[in-house]
Amino acid sequence: MSVGAGVVPEPAELITVAHDLADLADGLTLPAFRGHLEVSTKPDGTWVTAIDEQVERTLRREIRRRFPDHAVLGEEDGRDGPADAPTWIIDPIDGTTNFVRGNPIFATLIAVQVDGVEVAGVVSAPALTSRWDGRHGGPARQDGREIRVSDRTDLAAAEVAFGGLHYFAPKGLAGLVPSLSAATGRQRGYGDFWQHCLVAAGSTDVAVEAEVNLWDLAAVKVVVEAAGGRFTTLDGRPTADGGDALSTNGLLHDQVLALIAEVRTAAG
Fold this sequence. Notes:
CATH topology of the largest domain: Fructose-1,6-Bisphosphatase, Chain A, domain 1
Helix content: 25-40%
Shape: globular
Strand content: 25-35%
Number of domains: 2
Number of strands: 17
Number of helices: 7
Strand order of the largest sheet: 6-5-7-8-9-10-11-12
């Protein structure tokens, strides 16, 4: 495979490298977890720690060493590298607030995008002692074993997971949480990367987020799709770069999109 600045390794090789990068990240995040952390507030009001910054710098250096012609996009330091090059997309700590508060639901997210398509992704959650990976076209794995989405087709019996509830109203979706709660059998606020990985593993059926960025979603999108699921924006666009997200087992996706459209129409 070749594109832009040079030859692109096959997805299996990219996943191997992403696991190596995740090992480096885990070696920084896990020893610091529940320790003394230097925390500051970014302009958008979210927290960042010195560990977030150290992880991203470490992974950027290693990617440049292995693939000098590739680009890198990270949450903390933005993008560098050729616009048409394969791009490594990094969230050094997804769930920084959890990390700071001593909640084990945090992860390093690593994805590779080629020609706008996420072809490989790794999600490493060391405090949960779990790691997920996927490649375009499948398979998806959790801790080395293949995983698949659920086969549930009845929305009334499905479980739906949410991210931060306060993000829905500014998007004109204040009615979505009560509507989905009424339409589904079980609701849980797993949030962040974890809810999408649970969709991939068949442990929940639907996950909805109203305010997210590409680095929050690129890796989990690969994993969900590799597991047989479907991943779009809340209006159905098949991208991780739309500012919001819906992941499902695929069988329920159109039902949820229709419900979201009804809520938007009702809101005017």
